[in-house]
Amino acid sequence: MGKVVLYSTVSVDGFIADPNDQVGPLFDWMSGGDVPLDDKGEVKVTQASYDYVRPYWDEIGVTVVGRHVFDLTKGWGGRPPSGIDHMVVVTHRPMPDDWDAAAPFHFVEGVEAAVEQARRLAGDRTVEVAAGDVGGQVLAAGLVDEVAMDVAPVVLGAGKRYFGSVDAQHLLEDPHVVIQGNRVLHLRYRVRTG
């Protein structure tokens, strides 16, 4: 089984979006370089960011998101972003009426069931869990192996928290990845067990 990684770009004060779901300058780092990160060449980062992010993206088999993110992105038009094979959407509601049931999106109720489904679909590849409320619930359930953050030098002041509404202490190991890019610091921490 692959590992489960909680991930997002985050402001230095811990937010992944403002109160209106706007990301503002959080993703400036994805246009701050000259190395194409995606196939279309729309995202350009520094070589240091590319050397970290591209292999990480390539190891992701499935991403778990909440219904709110799915609705905000309009389900990415039925195509998972960044070459990901499948998306698992945590929701209590059925898929949209006009949704193509053949799209590689799986609608699952509850974070435990979502991670179980994602692990089956991912096989030996990584299960990425989008930070926010669902990500915080997955962490609280003890299902996260690593926390990955792309920390942007931005203070949003308020908004959607990286760990959602987690209200208990969780210990992480010292970071095993620390990479400085342009307008970003890439960090990865293993979650302490026991």
From TrEMBL:
InterPro entries: DHFR-like_dom_sf, RibDG_C. It comes from the Bacteria. Residues 111-178 form the Bacterial bifunctional deaminase-reductase C-terminal domain. This is Dihydrofolate reductase family protein.
